[in-house]
Amino acid sequence: xxxxxxxxxxxxxxxxxxxxxxxxxxxxxxxxxxxxxxxxxxxxxxxxxxxxxxxxxxxxxxxxxxxxxxxxxxxxxxxxxxxxxxxxxxxxxxxxxxxxxxxxxxxxxxxxxxxxxxxxxxxxxx
Length: 126
Description:
By secondary structure, this protein is mainly alpha-helical. It folds into two domains: 3-63, no CATH class; 75-124, no CATH class. The chain is 63% helix and 8% strand. Helix 1 crosses helix 2 (43-52).
């Protein structure tokens, strides 16, 4: 046995099982008829869910996190939450990737956006 296997067996497997059992209770409580498990993160959870709870249809849904995040935003608080998530790149890149907003780099407003981002980073280093 390897250390990674032991850690998975002792720590992660019980947590994932507990989550799936809790999730099954939520599905029953809210009388859900279909369950979508998102790509990558939902793969193993779906496998275990199907093993334990085969009475309700579930689908492994091939989607991106970016698409899911965009679809779930409903108000300013959601936009603020998404904007505060870590992103490696420029603010204009973040606007395009996360919100689908393209900013013309030659537009002076784009330069202002990048200035705000750079200013925020330099003030954290003080």
